[in-house]
């Protein structure tokens, strides 16, 4: 992708979306919501939530929420650390190849970790995590952290996610990458 086009705002993606939304197999409502979301992002009106979008749309909040989840699950919009990223739809508008994220089945992952089937309330917790802007990988890392601490409940996973979002920690993998900057000699030194 030519990042100069993005950096200097050479392309009006909302106009391009309006003209090419149908060719991307987007419904009129999804195109409408994407245009509102991109406008809110440009105006720095964050966070972009269904309630905020509802202020500018005649759609019901549940409809907005369902369309937003569909846009994220269909990889038109990504969530990075709780913030919506519109680069996938922009790449699609420019006919560039969009790398597909590996689909993670969070329900089965939680069931395997907890060792039991989840209730409908617990499945709604997972949906709430996704609606709050946490990406699948971050939720998986929080679940692993809870399992490592041997505290297997949704409130604990939720607190981990909230703390990571509050203090800017994105994922556990970043910690490991930071520690890998030390040479093997330092890592394997017998300090005692």
Automatic annotation (TrEMBL):
This is DnaB/C C-terminal domain-containing protein. InterPro entries: DnaB/C_C, DnaD, DnaD-like_sf. It comes from the Bacteria. The lineage of its organism: Bacteria, Bacillati, Bacillota, Erysipelotrichia, Erysipelotrichales. PANTHER family: DNA REPLICATION PROTEIN DNAD, PHAGE REPLICATION PROTEIN-RELATED. SUPFAM superfamilies: DnaD domain-like (SSF158499). It comes from Intestinibaculum porci. Gene3D superfamilies: DnaD domain-like. Transmembrane segments: none annotated. Belongs to the DnaB/DnaD family. NCBIfam families: DnaD_dom. Residues 108-173 form the DnaB/C C-terminal domain.
């Amino acid at each position: 992708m030519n990042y100069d086009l993005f950096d200097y705002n050479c392309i009006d993606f909302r106009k391009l979306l309006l003209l090419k939304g149908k060719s991307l197999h987007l419904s009129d409502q999804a195109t409408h919501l994407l245009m509102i979301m991109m406008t809110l992002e440009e105006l720095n009106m964050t966070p972009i939530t269904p309630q905020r979008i509802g202020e500018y749309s005649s759609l019901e909040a549940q409809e907005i929420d369902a369309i937003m989840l569909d846009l994220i699950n269909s990889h038109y919009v990504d969530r990075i650390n709780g913030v919506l990223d519109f680069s996938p739809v922009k790449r699609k508008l420019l006919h560039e190849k969009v790398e597909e994220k590996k689909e993670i089945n969070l329900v089965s992952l939680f069931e395997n970790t907890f060792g039991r089937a989840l209730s409908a309330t617990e499945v709604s917790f997972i949906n709430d995590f996704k609606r709050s802007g946490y990406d699948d990988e971050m939720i998986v890392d929080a679940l692993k952290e809870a399992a490592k601490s041997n505290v297997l409940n949704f409130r604990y996973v939720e607190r981990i996610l909230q703390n990571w979002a509050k203090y800017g920690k994105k994922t556990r993998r970043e910690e490991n990458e930071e520690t890998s900057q030390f040479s093997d000699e330092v890592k394997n030194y017998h300090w005692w």
